[in-house]
Amino acid sequence: MKISLASILPAFVQSSINIKYEQTGVQVKFYVNTTGCEGSEPLTYKWTLEGNDGTTESNTVSVEIDHYKYLTKIVGSLRVAHFNSGFSDHAGRKDGVLQAKLMDPSWMPAKKIADVIQWNNPDVLSLQEFDHSWIDNDHWNSSATSQMVADFQRNFLAVPQGNGNRPVYYEHVFVAPCNTGVQTGYDLNKNGNIGDPGDAHGYGDFPGAFSMVLLSKFSLDTKNIRTFQHFLWTDMPGAYLPVNPATGEMYYTQDKLSVLRLSSKSHWDIPLKVGGNEIIHVLQSHPTPPVFDDGTATEYPPTKAIVDWNGFKNNNEIRFWTDYIDYTKLSYIYDDNEWVSAGNTMPNHPRGGLKKYERFIIIGDQNCDPVDGDATGALEQIPATYNNRDTKTVPWGLHVDYVLPSMVGLEMVNAYVHWPMKKDVEAYLLDASDHLMMVVVDVKASSTIL
Predict the structure, then answer these.
(1) How many other C-beta atoms can be found within 10 angstroms of the C-beta atom of residue 199?
(2) 262: number of Cβ within 10 Å
(3) DSSP letter string over 79-115?
(4) Phi, psi (5° rounding) for residue 414?
(5) What pLDDT does 140 receive?
(6) How many angstroms separate the CA atoms of 157 and 213, rounded?
(7) How does pLDDT run across 188-219, given as a tens digit for each residue?
(8) What is the per-residue pLDDT across 366-420, written as a single tens digit (0 to 9) for each?
(9) Side-chain-side CA neighbours of residue 142 (13 Å)
C-alpha cells in the first residue's frame, strides 16, 4: 500500500481536500499544516493512504510550494479547460499539412500539445487553432476533419507523453465548419485584390484555418447543439458596423454587409450532459483579434480618424454571447438550422438564446483583455460569470483565453492557468503553443437554482 513521494508530489494542494488517486483501491487524503512555517518554504504536508481493507498509512513530508498544487482535481467536480494549441502555426499555415502531420506519432508539436492535455486531464476541452479540412470554399469535409481529430487522439493523446503521463481519451467530439479562410467574394481589406486571407469571413490562408474542436468525456446532447456560423453581422440590433469617421459612411458597402458573417470562426452552443439529466451549455467561440487594422477606437461611432473594423467586430462577437445568455433580450438570434430552413436568410421568428437559469460556460480565446490591450471593452459586457481578471494567459502580457462559468447553477471550485516556470519539470512545454499553456476551471453543478 506504499506510494512513492515522487508519485504524489503533483497532487499537493493548499487546503484540506479529498481526492482519488489513480490506483485501484487507494484513496489519498492531503492535509496542509503550515504551523510554525511562517509563510516560508518548505511547508509541511501530511498525507494519508487508505486501503480497501480499512488499514491506513500516514507520513509527513516537507516540500516547496509550486504550481503542482493547482493540478489537483476535487472529486465530483467537472474540469473544463481551454487551450489555444497553435496547431495552425505549427503546420506552417498550409492547407493539408496538419492533416498529414497528425498521422505521424513522432511529430513533436503534437506530442507537446498532447503532453499539456495529459498533465491537466480536463473532462471538457476547447481546442482552438486546429485546422479543418475543406473540399473547396463552399464545402466543408466533415469526414476528413473528424479523422484528423481521431488521428490526434490515437497517435498522441492515447500515448503517454512526457514524464510518464497517463493517456487521455475523449469519447465525445464535436466539430463543425468555421468561417476562417472562407472567402466572401469581396475585397474586404481594400488592397485591390480579392481572395486574400483578409477577404474571408474570418482571417485565414485557406478554408478551415485556425478552426476549433470540442472534446469531452461527458456525453453531448447532440440533438440540441446549435451553431451560428451563418449569422450575419447586420442582423445584430445596434451592431457596431465599422464607420468611416471622416465621411460618416459605412466602411463596408451594402453588398459586402449583405454577406458578411459575424463569427470569425463560429459560435457553438454545445449542451453537456452531467449528473444524469443536468445540462451545462458550453458556449465556444474565438473572435477576431481587435488589432491588425488602423488603430483602436474608444467609442462607437468613432470620433477619431480611426475605423477599427477588427476592434468593433471583436466587441460584437463577444456581445453575441452577452445577448445569448440574457433571456430578457429580444429574440433576434437564429442558428444555422433556422438560417437554412428560412432559405438562407434571417427567419421571421428567431429562436433566440438561453432560457432563464440555464447553466453555461463561455469558453475560448476571446482575444480581449478587460484591462490592457486594444479591445473596446467587449468583455465588460458579460455579466454573472466567475472571472479572474488579474491572470494573464499569453507571454505578451494579456488575458485573452477564458473559461467563464455562470454564477447561477454552478459552483467554481478551482481555477488556474497552467504556466510552468523554467525550474519546473515540464518547462520543456513552454513552446507547446504561442499561448503557452492551458486555462482550467473546476466547477460543480449546484443542486438548486435560485
Answers:
(1) 20
(2) 26
(3) EEEEEE--HHHHTTT-TTHHHHHTT-TT-HHHHHHHH
(4) -160, 155
(5) 98
(6) 14
(7) 999 999 999 999 999 999 999 999 999 999 99
(8) 877 666 655 555 555 544 445 554 566 666 666 678 888 998 889 888 888 877 7
(9) 4
